[in-house]
Amino acid sequence: MKKMSGMRWPALLALTIMGCASGVVVAQQSDDDIFAEYREMFGDDNPAELIEWQGEDLWKEARGPKQASLEQCDLGLGPGVVDGAYAQLPRFFADAGRVMDLESRLVYCMVELQGFDKAEAAAKPYSGRGEEPSALEALSAFIAGRSKGTPVAVPQDHPAERAAFELGKQFFYLRAGPHDFSCATCHSQSGKRIRLQALPNLTASEDARKAFSTWPGYRISQGTVRTMEWRMGDCARQQRLPEMKFGSDVAIGLITYLGVMAEGEPMDAPGLKR
Ligand code: HEC
After folding, report:
1. What is the distance between the alpha carbons of residues 163 and 183, in angstroms, rounded to a whole number?
2. What distance in angstroms lies between residue 118's CA and the mean position of ligand 1's atoms?
3. Are 167 and 183 in contact (CB under 8 A)?
4. Distance between Cα 63 and ligand 1 center (Å)
5. Which residue has the higher pLDDT, 274 or 133?
6. Does ligand 1 have an atom closer than 6 angstroms to the CB of 194?
7. Which of 184, 198, 219, 221 holds its CA 20 to 30 A away from the CA of 39?
8. What is the Cα–Cα distance from 195 to 198, expressed in whole angstroms?
C-alpha cells in the first residue's frame, strides 16, 4: 500500500464539502459524473487505506477477556488466511452451522477467540457521524482490501449456501413496506436515476459485478468506510422497511445473492463511494 501524500488532505476536505452541496450547486451534473471526477483526482489514493491500516492493527491486537488477537480466525480458507477470503464470502461454516458473511464471521471470531459477549460484539456495527470507524468497519476494510484482484467466487456447494442465495433472491423481488417497493423496484432497470444518483441495475451482470466488487466502500459524504451490511440496511431504510437486523439471514441472503451474481469479477474494495 502506498502512503497518501499530505497534499491530498485539503483536496479531500474540499471534495467532502462539495460532495455535501453537490445536489444543490451542480444541478446539471449527475452525482455519477461528479464522483467519476473525484475518483480521477484521487487516482490510486483512496482514503480508505488509513482505515485498512487501522483494521490490520486491530486484527493483530490482543483484545477481549481472553486477550487474544483475531489472527487465528478462520474466514473460510483456513485459520489466519486473509488473502482472497473476502472474495469467497458469504459461505457455510461447519463450526457455526450457518452461512456467514464477513461481518457475522468476525463477530463469531470475536466471541470464540477473544471471549467477547456476542451481543456486545455486534452491538454497534457502524460508526456514527464524526466517530472513529467501528471495529467491524476497520476490519472489513482491511480484509476486503486483501482480496483486491481476486475474482469473486461465492460458493454454492453446500445446500445452506444455495438456500441463502434463494432467500436473498426472493427478498430482492419481494414487494413490501408502505410504498410496496422491492429492491428490484429501484434496481432492475438500466440507466435509472433517483435524485440525480444512478441506480445500478443489480439484475444485470455488469452493474451487479461492479456493485459487489467495490463494497465495503469509503463514503466520501460520510468520511468513513461503510460495509456491505450497512449498504443492505441503508437500502432497506430507503425501501421504508423496518430496520434490517445486523447478521440476519435476510442480510446474509441478499449479500449471497449479489455475490453469486458478481461471479468472476475481480474484487476492487474498498471502493470510493458518494
Ligand atoms: C427507493 C429506492 C431503493 C430501493 C428500494 C433499494 N435501493 Fe439500493 N440503492 C438505492 C440508491 C439511491 C443507491 C445509491 C446510493 C448512493 O450512492 O448513496 C443504492 C445503492 C445500492 C447498492 C450499491 C451499489 C454500488 O454500486 O455501490 C446496492 C448493493 C444496493 N443498493 C442493494 C439494494 C438491495 C439489496 C435492496 C433491497 C433490500 C435495495 N438496494 C433497495 C436505492 C434503492
Report:
1. 19
2. 29
3. no
4. 35
5. 133
6. yes
7. 184
8. 8
Asked whether the CA dihedral 129, 130, 135, 139 is positive or negative, the reply is positive
Is 70 exceeded by the pLDDT of residue 217? yes
Distance of alpha carbon 260 from alpha carbon 249, whole angstroms:
16
236 within ligand 1 shell (Cβ under 6 A): yes
- Identify which has the larger pLDDT, 222 or 159: 159
Cα 216 to ligand 1 centre (Å): 14
pLDDT of residue 34: 64
80 CA from centroid of ligand 1 (Å): 33
The three three-digit cell numbers of residue 49, written as one number: 487505506
Question: Looking at this protein, which amino acid is placed at residue 96?
Answer: A
Per-residue pLDDT band for 29 (boundaries 50, 70, 90) equals low
**Ligand 1 atom closest to Cα of residue 207:** 26
User: Which residues are CB-neighbours of 255 under 8 A, at least 6 positions away?
Assistant: 90, 101, 168, 228, 229, 232
